[in-house]
Design a protein that fits this description.
This protein has 198 residues and is an alpha/beta fold. The chain is built from nine helices and seven strands, in the order αααααβαβαβαβαβββ. Its cofactor is Mg(2+).
Length: 198
């Protein structure tokens, strides 16, 4: 979506520039775009929010095996979503993809003072789940999100093939289909290929 938005604002969507938008809040994205267009941040943010909401309503597809993975955890391990997105958009995405029933807690940009890369979203999610950050695992697809999870003292798995995210996260899986879960008592283990995280 960001590539099309940049083109609408007559900005060249170079891959490096597009990557700067991954995981940031719509306010931060609007500020970046406004710097290059002469439009106000509020005007750009409103347009971004409308476009993003419309795309979510038109249908989204979850990552491969996400539903199976969440089903394996559901009821045994508390699950949260911590997003820089607006609550209405996050809930719409989770509903559209059929994943909302697996989620115990949803934390969005409206719930915190600072979004990612600050740790606030993950800290609040852990607090609402009554889980210590060191006993949690965050699945994150952006460098900004990985940094926020690490700042919150959570364990992190980068859900991407991006080597930059892997270097920061320390663990990487290109998709949920590369993960296995084992639950024993009150502990759960996530296996990525040949590695096991506890």
């Amino acid at each position: 979506m960001i590539q099309e938005v940049l083109l609408q604002h007559h900005l060249e969507p170079h891959p490096e520039f597009v990557e700067e938008f991954r995981g940031i809040t719509s306010t931060k994205a609007a500020q970046k775009i406004a710097l290059h267009t002469g439009k106000s941040t509020d005007e750009v943010k409103d347009a971004l929010d409308v476009e993003y909401s419309a795309r979510l309503r038109s249908g989204s597809v979850p990552m491969a095996n996400a539903s199976t993975f969440l089903h394996a955890l559901h009821g045994a391990v508390p699950i949260a979503v911590a997003s820089n997105g607006r609550r209405e958009d996050v809930e719409a995405l989770l509903s559209t993809t059929g994943l909302i029933g697996f989620i115990d807690v949803i934390v969005t940009i409206e719930d915190v003072t600072q979004g990612k890369p600050a740790p606030d979203l993950f800290e609040l999610a852990c607090k609402r789940l009554a889980v210590q950050p060191a006993h949690s695992v965050v699945f994150e697809d952006s460098l900004i999100g990985v940094g926020a999870a690490k700042a919150a003292k959570c364990n992190v798995i980068g859900m991407t093939t991006d080597p930059v995210v892997e270097a920061e996260a320390g663990n990487i899986a290109p998709g949920f289909d590369c993960l296995d879960v084992k639950i024993t008592g009150q502990e759960f283990y996530v296996q990525i290929k040949d590695r096991i995280l506890k």
